[in-house]
Amino acid sequence: MEGLQIGQAASETGIPVETIRYYERVGLVTPHRKGSGNYRLFDDEVISRLVFVRNAKALGFSLSQIRSLLKVQDADNRAEIKSIAASHLVDVEKRIGALMAIGKALTDAVNECDGKGGIDGCPIIEAIVDYENCDRSAALEEDQA
Question: 15-65, pLDDT tens digit by residue?
């Protein structure tokens, strides 16, 4: 394939044109420039790279982690790829724990609320107001940092 223009690449990968432009600006992909209009052309290799970035994002990797994965992939370094993925897995497991704590807090509040009357004394409102004082919110904020 000689290459696809950016709109075609967007259709092929399911990535919006503006996102592809952003990935180009931050150096994740480098399309070729060809033709009289100096159009960006996305060949099979660049399309594969875009799909890799899309899938890595879907798995929760940050752009910084994706950049590292691409770099070590290009260097053919499986050990480093495993290290990056293992580190990401630890972060994911921490976020899952924090989300489970949030789920429990919300479940408890919903189960305590009878859904009758005004909001004074509503266990859901109280849980939301008091939540910032809980260890659960600190754990989630730490994981998102």
Answer: 999 999 999 999 999 998 776 677 889 999 999 999 999 999 999 999 999
Burial class (CB in 10 A: 0-12, 13-18, 19+), 2: exposed
* Size (the chain), residues: 145
Query: Distance (Å, rounded) from C-alpha 54 to C-alpha 61?
Result: 10
More confident residue, 130 or 66: 66
Q: Long-range pairs for 68-75 at CB < 8 Å and ≥24 separation? A: 70/28
Token pair belonging to 136? 């659960």
- Tell me the H-state helices in 59-131: 63-74, 78-112, 123-130
The predicted-structure confidence for 6-15, as pLDDT tens digits, reads as follows: 999 999 999 9
CATH 1.10.1660.10 describes domain 6-74: yes
Pull the structure tokens for residue 23.
């990935």
